[in-house]
Amino acid sequence: MKITHKFIKYSVVILFAVTSVYALLISFRWGLANVWYFNASYYLTDWSKQQKIASKQDYVNALTAINNAVGYNPEHPHYYHIKGRIIDWGIYAGFEKKFTLNEVKASYISSLSLRQAWPETWIDLAQTNNALHHLSKETQTYIDKALYYGPYQQVVTMGTLSILMQNWSSLNTTQITLFYQQLAIALQQPLLIKKLFRQAKENNIDHLVCIQIKYNDKFKLNHKTWYYKKYCN
What is the pTM of this model? Predict the structure, then answer.
């Protein structure tokens, strides 16, 4: 059967129309996903500022929003990361009865399967695994990944120090060295100082931080700082 020029022309037009409609539908779904993501992100930002979730309804709203975002765009790595953080907040606030830290961990792993080179997700995964299994080989692997992709990011520095301080009595020589390396980085970042000393005090190693500042020559300038006078005198 001879294919006419007219038939080819109509076929191309139909194919173009179908492709355009499909692209519009995808764009529409991604747009809706983004709206739901920003809704969920708003709650996370507020909780972080207030250091608490205002109500159980806020938690339900945030979880619903991020689930909708994932539903509309299941290939977006950041949505899984945010979902993990929201559930984590819900667990510690006592609002989450169905999911556990294993679900938080699974969300972070899903995110990393789609976007490996994201240090914040690696350090969140390390902290979650630390809560589940302490400073295991698996936890250390996640820390190493975070440091590889974001060696000077504040969230990575503080997350690494936090895990090491929580497990101070069981650290090996390599991990103690890592602690002091990260401590040196943290002491150069003013926004981390309060959090650093607060967590050091909570883990009863604030005196070790002060000794390091006092006797390590590269920290001589720190002797004149407000935090040295406040925490180490």
Answer: 0.86
